[in-house]
Prior knowledge:
Elements: E1 2-3, E2 7-10, E3 19-24, E4 33-36, E5 44-47, E6 58-63, E7 76-84, E8 100-104, E9 109-121, E10 124-128, E11 136-149, E12 152-157, E13 159-170, E14 174-179, E15 193-201, E16 205-208, E17 213-221, E18 231-234
Parallel strand pairs: 1-5, 3-6, 4-7, 5-7, 6-8, 7-9, 8-10, 9-11, 10-12, 11-13, 12-14, 13-15, 14-16, 15-17, 16-18
Antiparallel strand pairs: 2-3
Amino acid sequence: YILKANKLFYLSNNSTTNPIYYAFGPAMEGKNCYVVGAGPGVTVLKMANNQHYSGHLAVLILNRTTGDMNNGFTSFTLANLTLDGNRANQEIVSAIDGPGLYLSGSIRTNEKILNVELKDSFGYGIYCGNNGSGPINGLVINDIRATNCYKTAIMTDTVCGLLINNCIIEDSNSGIECVGNQPDYLTRPRDAIVISDVICRRAGITLWTVNDVTMNGCYMDCTGAPLQYGLLVHSCIR
């Protein structure tokens, strides 16, 4: 499926600033939704040519409410497909957080991204954002194959209860980046982040102001990576 990012959304709540254009918004306005393909490489959602450029920042899939940012979805699953950013035919521009293949926001629960291939993103692969008054509650990212992301392949912003498991990430600015609100990482409840069985080749892992992380079975080789970082840990506890 070739998709055009022809729908306008303002990332700043109740304002007309930070515009972004999106192609597909399956769980807007707090609806529960399942987007399930026939398998990676079989069901492919691909960004059309010339959708991301200066003044027209784009995302392939957007999941956020347009009103009360605390009223996001209570269940959403994206599974068994390929997201293709068609990077070679997009302009690479320095952009705000979010443009890329998948962007979610609002305060929400039970978000699952399972058996998804991310390829050739002009920005992020997966960006699970915190755009309300508190953290995401419960996020599972499992069986991801990501290649050639201009920014981070898997980016999470302030998650309470996060599992990243069984992923292979190659040739990306960063492989996995887990970020928390600051300075409340010192006082908020534990983030409860588990990262396991991950291979990063020419991509690293970044932990930034998070307060509870367990990592097991992670392999990193950053030789030739766009950024020469391995495991970068900044202002973290536990």
